[in-house]
Amino acid sequence: MANPVFARSRSGDLWRVQPTGATWRALERSPLYSEELGIDLAKRSDSAYFRWFLASLLFGARISETTAKNTYRSFVRHGLTNPQKILKAGWDFLVYPVMRERGYVRYDGRKSTPVLRDCEMLIADYGGRLSRLHDVATDARDVEERLLAFYGVGPVTTNIFLRELRPFWTKADRDPLPAVERLAKRLSINLNRYSRNSLVFARVEAGLIRRPPFASPAKRAGLTRKATLHADHRRTDPEMPELPDVEGFKRVLAKNALRKTIDQVVVSDARILGKLPVGTFASRLKGAKLIAVRRHGKHLMANIDRGGWLTLHFGMTGALQFVGKPDCEPPFTRVRLDFADDGSLAYTNKRMIGRVGLVEDAADFIASEKLGLDALDRRLDFDAFSTAVLSLKRDVKSVLMEQEVIAGIGNIYSDEILFQARINPAERIDKLSPNQFKHLFVEMRRVLKTAVARGAGSEQFVERMPKGSLLPERDKGGRCPRCRSVLKVFKIGGRTAYCCPQCQGC
């Protein structure tokens, strides 16, 4: 057996590489991702093409490869393997059970919308046949452009879809991912020895994308990086639940938990309580009832019949859910209140950036948090709004998001408000014209009231917003719902802003 070859990366890590011949042979036998899912692209059927397109859409979100595969199999199990059946199933069925039962939770609502819209577009433009898309395209570049025209499809999702179609579509000639080319070069693998439209090239590419068996285990993920497969990541920043989300949680609590006796208090992770002892928290709530609920900004507070308030802040990934049985506890439940009559109230928070607590007085709590007036508070009229913000010499987006000035608006709804007001997010608020400033106030109230009335959130249920809203398009590569210009994406104060360069002048 030949001696192994060692190479050192830029960071100084030592890599063990098998002899070149063995490396080639192993890669040439690599299974395609479509084959792992039971999709036989060699049949050259529209059924197989659509199933692979669906899988590519799922792979395009910021989730694990395993979750994407399991969710695809959930579509198959429910018989949703063509665009007509998916459209007939509808949005609610896609969210639950199809998406959620296999762990596709954080992006279930956001991914269901583009899947449905892409099915509609595929039927309208190509009679539901992806082979038709290929046939009418003039060349490989046109195939890519037509795929990119689908909602939520970016360059890497296009790459995922086309790279395994190389042997079967004459116009599928997507360049390999840069990470694949870099890895091949590092391993002294000459990709030019293969025809790009051959099945063996597709297998070699799939093998390079996977965790290579010839790399050190500690660094395999660093070479392949799941992001190279699933890299059409729309929002790079995790988004905090905002006023409309928390208003939705308020309704969940009001509908399912008020005036019910709390029979048991379960704290799964004491860190969510901060310095509050678990025993103190549980003893204050066990046997008590929640008799009223109020929201201020992004905070939720429930009045306890014995006195005091339960406080809930949802951080980056928090939510509040009512479940019929304790054994149906949602993933990442940190606190659960079981009621004597029926059901449980579950506070979930994947990333633990949030908190649950007890306070004696709601007004004192709001003051201690240094929160400004709630963005939908009746006291926040135009004069109060002017007084609160006009002395600030900062960009308008950051001012809207400043909780000490106005409570409740975050990164996503600030973009929607500014889009509707046709204002550049980077414009200083004290430099706005009187008409712009008045329009900003009006749109702030209108957008938030509309979102609350329609049950839209910051990441979930954005498709419930009315036509002409930015939120359903607020993705990398998204387009202005007015003029169809590609949205501009840039950083302001460390947060990602989306705006239309034509309508907002950004």
Q: Can you put this structure into words, describing what you see?
A:
With 506 residues, the chain is an alpha+beta fold. Helices cover 41% and strands 14% of the residues. It has helices at 20-28, 33-36, 46-59, 65-77, 83-99, 108-126, 130-136, 140-148, 155-163, 178-186, 199-209, 220-229, 243-256, 278-285, 362-368, 382-389, 396-401, 411-421, 434-454; strands at residues 5-8, 14-17, 262-267, 290-296, 299-304, 309-313, 318-323, 333-339, 344-349, 355-359, 373-374, 406-407, 488-492, 495-499. It is globular, with a radius of gyration of 26 Å. It starts with a strand and ends in a 7-residue tail after the last strand. Residues 1-19 and 212-238 have low confidence and may be disordered.
Q: What is the alpha-carbon Rg in Å?
A: 26 Å
Task: Give the structural class.
Answer: alpha+beta
First-residue to last-residue Cα separation: 62 Å
In total, the number of strands is 14
The poorly predicted ranges are 1-19, 212-238
Number of helices, counting only DSSP H or I runs of 4 residues or more: 19
The percent of residues in helical segments reads 40-55%
* Overall pLDDT level: 85
Largest sheet: 4 strands, antiparallel
Share of residues in strands: 5-15%
State the shape: globular
Please state how the strands of the largest beta sheet are arranged side by side: 3-8-9-7
